[in-house]
Amino acid sequence: MRLLLFLPVAATLLGGCKNSCQQVCVRMAKYAESECNLVVPSDQLSTCIEQQDGAASKDHRETCRDFGDIDAIANEWSCAQLEVYWGAGDGGGDGSEEKTTE
Q1: Are 90 and 84 in contact (CB under 8 A)?
Q2: Are 45 and 79 in contact (CB under 8 A)?
Q3: How far apart are CA 50 and CA 1, in angstroms?
Q4: What is the 3-state secondary structure (H, E, C) of 29-81?
């Protein structure tokens, strides 16, 4: 039964990432879960990936490639910001909050 629930999420994660900005969504979610002990709702991750589907300009995708690795995410996002962004705290956010030192 658990496998059946996981399959749609796995398909989204593995098959849904066509550009570097979509891959940032997955990396941010993995970082939030592994380093901040957050649970990223699958619908939030799917929404992030969908929002980056084909809409990103070439410059935007280059920025995602340049700053989308785990180290860059760790430097730019606090756990509190990721909690807001992924909706684990107050129902969601747009990620525009300024990083604060924890």
Answers
A1: yes
A2: no
A3: 26
A4: HHHHHHHHCCCCCHHHHHHHHHHCCCCCCHHHHHHHHHHCCHHHHHHHCCHHH
What are the boundaries of each domain within the chain?
Answer: 2-85
Question: Coil, helix or strand for 91?
Answer: coil
Q: Which of 62, 50, 41 is nearest to 12 (CA)?
A: 50
Neighbours of 31 (CB within 10 A): 19
pTM check: above 0.85: no
- Tokens for 36, please give them: 């901040």
**Stretch among 1-5, 39-43, 57-61, 81-85 having the lowest mean pLDDT:** 1-5
pLDDT band with cut points at 50, 70 and 90 for residue 19: confident
Amino acid 15: pLDDT: 54
Residue-level pLDDT at 17 = 65
